[in-house]
Amino acid sequence: MNAASTFGHDICGHSAVELRRLIGARQLSPVELMDACIARIEALNPAINAIAATDFARAREAARQAETAVMRGAPLGPLHGLPLGVKDLQDTAGLLTTYGNVGLRNNVPTRDNGLVSRLRAAGAIVIAKTNVPDMGAGANTRNAVWGATGNPFNPALNAGGSSGGSAAALATDMLPLATGSDTGGSLRIPAAYCGVVGLRPSPGLVANDVRPLGWSSISVLGPMGRDIADTALLLASSQAFDPRDPLSYPSISNSLPMVDLASLRVGYSEDLGVAIVDDEIRRVFRDRVEALRPLVALCEPVALATGDADRAFDILRAESFYAAFADTYRTSPETLGPNVRANVEIAANITLGDRAWAHLAQTRIARNFAAAFEHYDVIIAPVISVTPFPWTELYASTVNGVAMRNYYHWMALAYTATLATNPALSLPCGVDEHGMPFGLQMIGRLRGDWALLGAAAALEAAFKGHERRRRPRPDLAKLREPQPRLKSIVTHPPFAAASAAATETVGNAV
């Protein structure tokens, strides 16, 4: 197999679906694809710092084995030979997994988590870990181990989080596929900021065997891709029933359905009833709504009773962080970043009555969304309230002149959908008034993940020919130029030594 003459230097630019087809047809060698991705990482990662630990030697050996399997006519998995980036919150056997935390900077797991294991079984080849905030807390990907991830459209700006490394790597074609996870928007926000697709699945569709609170619905694992078809390809191999996850269930579908855009009933909301949204984002969203209106059967505003979302999310998020980090907070608080500590400290003041109220409030929100879906097939909203801001700012402290209550309040558009438990995705939909990617949040019926993907694919196809509304692409040539080295901002003394070391080596264990 020799693809060099056919594809020149643009192998990495092909979709994951097309790359897998070419591998199966013996028109592309998994070795050539792996070498191309490694070369792209080495060329562009210094500019944006999306990649954390790398596994190039084992990945190349796995690619050689994948090529041998193709040539001998062996059965091939749906992801056979495709390089995969794994979010650095997800354990990978034999590959450094730091969670972006100084206390885990030498952590090398002995086993894959369930999701990584399923993707390897489907033929994917783990090439690297992708950068995250410390313990995944926050929507700005920066930590004291690896430093900050810059936005591919402007490396001085935030790439989103907590799956920011995955989103930035996909946007720059370093990887054809990458994993993510989402509590308050960690799949959707970086996808929106980097111009790719991130799907937050219905809880339990992608089994999570390591979630501390097994019955909690707010944290999920999910796929990321450069378009809807690639995201669907990864979801099909990600979903599974696993008895270690009490919420998991077997999916009844694993293929992207054809959806007639003209038949869709769409409800839209600029703020999902509770979020504070910048005026610019509202204007951009209205423009997309007007572009969508003539393409669908119905497009009208939807009123959602979500006024309790902020406090409910405060309590449920703190509960999950307390379950995961309370012991570390008691014994080694200096190893936890300020965002993680903030959540644990909130939990210390929460009563049993607060917890009961939060679960009741979440139930009301979920049932309100369920009632809305009796009239609509899809609900759309912006993904995030503000355009990307400098990564040196830990979070957006104000939105439209209003001070945020805490480090995640500016993410209310995303975490309100989290509370509803419905599947939600970010669809790249042109750029905002600053020329940065704009993500359209599409929310579907509970467990209607594949129908949601089908509707998103139809809209993606409709907007593909419109420069202002199709997926934007970063200037890769500009990223090849020398860039200021991305460094992590040190917020308190215990991070100082680790931060200095982290900025000396990008993409390798430090």
3D architecture notes:
- Helix 5 (114-121) links the parallel strand 2 (83-87) and strand 3.
- It contains 16 helices and 17 strands.
- Helix 3 packs antiparallel against helix 4 (56-71), helix 6 packs parallel to helix 7 (188-194) and helix 10 crosses helix 11.
- With 510 residues, it is of the alpha+beta class.
- The protein has one domain: Amidase signature (AS) domain (Amidase signature (AS) enzymes, Alpha-Beta Complex), CATH 3.90.1300.
- It is globular and about 60 Å long.
- It has helices spanning 4-7, 16-24, 30-48, 56-71, 114-121, 164-171, 188-194, 228-238, 279-292, 309-331, 338-348, 352-372, 412-420, 449-463, 476-479, 496-502; strands spanning 51-54, 83-87, 125-130, 142-143, 147-148, 150-151, 154-158, 177-182, 197-200, 220-225, 265-268, 298-301, 378-382, 398-399, 402-403, 424-431, 437-443.
- The protein has an eleven-stranded mixed β-sheet with strand order 1-3-2-8-10-9-16-17-13-11-12, with helices on both faces. It has a two-stranded antiparallel sheet with strand order 4-5.
- It is 36% helix and 15% strand.
Number of strands: 17
Content of β-strand: 5-15%
Helix content class = 25-40%
Structural class: alpha+beta
Largest beta-sheet details: 11 strands, mixed
Q: Which blocks of ≥5 consecutive residues have pLDDT under 50?
A: 488-510
* Overall 3D shape: globular
**CATH class designation:** Alpha Beta
Q: Tell me the radius of gyration.
A: 21 Å
Tell me the distance between the termini: 37 Å
In CATH, the homologous superfamily goes by the name: Amidase signature (AS) domain
Q: What is the count of DSSP helices, taking H or I runs of 4+ residues?
A: 16
Strand order of the largest sheet: 1-3-2-8-10-9-16-17-13-11-12
CATH architecture: Alpha-Beta Complex
Number of domains: 1
CATH topology label: Amidase signature (AS) enzymes
Mean pLDDT: 93
